[in-house]
Amino acid sequence: MFDPNKIVAKAQHSGFYRWLLNKSLDRMIPFNRPHGFQVIDIGDYHLKTRLPYRRRNQNHIRGLHACALATVSEFTTGFLLVSRLDSRKYRIIMQRLEMDYHYQGKMDATAVFEISEAWLQEQVYEPLRTQESVVIPCEVKIHDQAGNHLTTGKVFWQIKDWQRVRTKVSA
Fold first, then answer.
1. What does the alpha-carbon distance between residue 7 and residue 17 come to, in Å, rounded to a whole number?
2. What is the rounded distance in angstroms from the CA atom of residue 53 to the CA atom of residue 106?
C-alpha cells in the first residue's frame, strides 16, 4: 500500500523519490497542479519549493502573480507541518494568511520554510497539553533565482487533536 511517510523519507535523499513525491502531490492536491509547484529539497525540518515562472503563474504585467506566491507559501508551510505531525492524531487547518510583497518576480522563485524539534515542542506539543487548539504562525520567505527577496508570508495554522474536533468529516 502507498505510504506517504515512506515516500517523504526517501525523497530526502533520492531524486527519483522526489519526482514520485511531486507527481503524487499533483494528484492529491489538484488545485495546485496548474501552478507546477515542485518540492526541490526536503529534510526533517526544512522544505524548499519551486514556483516556476510560466504563463499560468503570471499576472497581467508578466510578474509572478500574488495568488501563486501566496499559494506556494501555504503549500510549503502546510506540507512540512503535515509531514512532521501525525495526521491521524492532529487536524491542521489554515486560519489566516498574511503576505508582504517586496519585489516583482520575473523568474522562477523558491519558498523556504524551516522549523526544529524544539520549535514543535514549544509551539505545538506543550500548548496542546492544556489548550484545545493552538494557532501557530509560520514565516516563509520567497526569493527568485537572482536572490531578490520577493515575499514574506505568514501562514497561521490551527492545530487540534482529532479527539477534540466536534465537527465530523462527511464522506
1. 6
2. 7
Segment (H or E) for 47 = strand 46-51
* All cell numbers assigned to 43: 529534510
pTM above 0.90, yes or no: no
Sign of the torsion angle spanned by Cα atoms 91, 14, 39, 149 = positive
User: What cell was used for 99?
Assistant: 503576505
CA-based Rg of the chain, rounded to a whole angstrom? Answer: 16
Instruction: Please state, in angstroms and rounded to a whole number, the distance separating the CA atoms of residues 163 and 134.
Output: 14
Q: Edge to edge, what strands does the sheet with 109-114 contain?
A: 38-42, 46-51, 109-114, 133-144, 149-161, 90-101
Cell representation of residue 69: 506566491
Strand partners, 50: 38, 110
Interval 20-74: pLDDT, tens: 877 888 777 877 788 889 999 999 999 999 999 999 999 999 999 999 999 999 9
Contact 128, 120 (CB under 8 A): no
User: What angle separates helix 4-11 from helix 15-28, to the nearest 10 degrees?
Assistant: 140
Distance CA 21, CA 46 (A): 16
Sign of the alpha-carbon dihedral angle for 146, 147, 150, 154:
positive
